[in-house]
């Protein structure tokens, strides 16, 4: 490997030896094509014409009035397939094509990354096999159907707790056996090097557009940039362009679930250091290092690990992280829907709730919220939560 993929002491490559050649091949291709003119022109074409970039940086006037701050929303919810995930699947899908791979595999929890991968598989004419815990397959029938309609095969995983982390293990196993013709399209800034660096790279487009647009609208950088953190890709995507500007506060909202005393997915707020899925980071684990089950009302935030760069940003104090409970996210979901006519994903609602808290302590400041996805997929969960029968 050219790099050890470390962020401070976090990250790295903790995988079976059999996987090292595959990771090396991927690192080499990524380093070659990330600055390649033809590759980037083609990627920009698909981001624009297929996915709908650039996305607006929208001044949320009503919410600003209500919270006493200037609030801007980075509208990743307007992208094709409804979230920022398509930025990464287009990037990696195209890279796989340039590498001459013929097949995509991916893991998925609730199905959002599976759908974004199935979409790119259809676009580039590559078969896509999506590993999904059998518990999630049963819970997310509609998303399974959407993947299948786009031509992907959904493979139920019966091991462990039969959810996301088990699906990730199974996808890695498949990759070891089929690395010749297969690309493993990992969905967030987690996993072994080069994934955390590569996925962040494909999401930095969010930060680049945001910086350009806020400078045009405000003439200066924002006081704070706020995003939700599951594996960490939408947050690192928007943080990336502001990390070197120390005056900009970076705030991450984790899935606080029932609160830190109960079940939650707040890895950085309440976890400890450990190795999960090939890298050293904060994880939710018991005293024996067994990975705990995470919980959040939003499927995208209930991962018991977190991307290693976030661990580094946390311990160096460059970014702050805090939990948002299910109840707080639910209220923020209703707030944005009612005040702005924008129904946010439950994941993104965590960022909105965090912005409310920030605004209370920092009146008059300028805040950018990354609206990572739209909430159509969550309307049933909200109705259930409210006891409304649809
Ligand atoms: C998957 C998802 C997330 C969480 O993933 P990150 O890698 O942390 O960005 C957040 N928001 C939405 C809408 C998602 O679909």
TrEMBL record:
Its cofactor is pyridoxal 5'-phosphate. Pathway: Amino-acid biosynthesis; L-tryptophan biosynthesis; L-tryptophan from chorismate: step 5/5. GO terms for cellular component: cytoplasm. GO terms for molecular function: tryptophan synthase activity. Its EC number is 4.2.1.20. The modification N6-(pyridoxal phosphate)lysine is found at residue 85. Signal peptide: none annotated. Pfam families: PALP (PF00291). It is an enzyme of class 4 (lyase). It catalyses: (1S,2R)-1-C-(indol-3-yl)glycerol 3-phosphate + L-serine = D-glyceraldehyde 3-phosphate + L-tryptophan + H2O. Tetramer of two alpha and two beta chains. The beta subunit is responsible for the synthesis of L-tryptophan from indole and L-serine. This is Tryptophan synthase beta chain. The gene is trpB.
